[in-house]
């Protein structure tokens, strides 16, 4: 295994960090979290289900919201407040229904994220999940020049998410993903106090930091 150094990390990814708008005082913490695969956003955030009381939730209304749970709050200049946001489900379109039908834990997790009754008949639940999931999905292409280069480099920093280089048409097709409970609860705001961008290290997680 190659033992990466922070200096090597910056040599390979400085341009990507800068283009993503991640302030430099977060870089050392981000490096440590990537090589250790540290997903610790749950130490800072509470996930709260939104109660619409007597109003019916509209199709595009959020199901969950995040709340900072530490009493001291979060300072945007604190270099420790940058977080990796995992993928809950990564899939190709042609395999999505079968995966939902075959994997009970996946169905239940997606139902929780999307606010759908997990006690529904399996086929009915899968149909509802497939209808709803597009509000939560993002995609990337393994065959893009950027991802191909990053796939060659990323193994210096992480041991997970094994994908080879794109060598045929199937591998160049988009790979779709849904973020985990924290990532899926993040909503757009015109005056944000956090920002999240997709990772450019083979696109297998998001990066969230304070603004």
TrEMBL record:
<dbReference type="InterPro" id="IPR057954">
    <property type="entry name" value="SET_TTL12"/>
</dbReference>
<dbReference type="InterPro" id="IPR027749">
    <property type="entry name" value="TTLL12"/>
</dbReference>
<dbReference type="GO" id="GO:0005737">
    <property type="term" value="C:cytoplasm"/>
</dbReference>
<protein>
    <recommendedName>
        <fullName>Tubulin--tyrosine ligase-like protein 12 SET-like domain-containing protein</fullName>
    </recommendedName>
</protein>
<feature type="domain" description="Tubulin--tyrosine ligase-like protein 12 SET-like">
    <location>
        <begin position="148"/>
        <end position="199"/>
    </location>
</feature>
<dbReference type="Pfam" id="PF25556">
    <property type="entry name" value="SET_TTL"/>
</dbReference>
<feature type="domain" description="Tubulin--tyrosine ligase-like protein 12 SET-like">
    <location>
        <begin position="66"/>
        <end position="143"/>
    </location>
</feature>
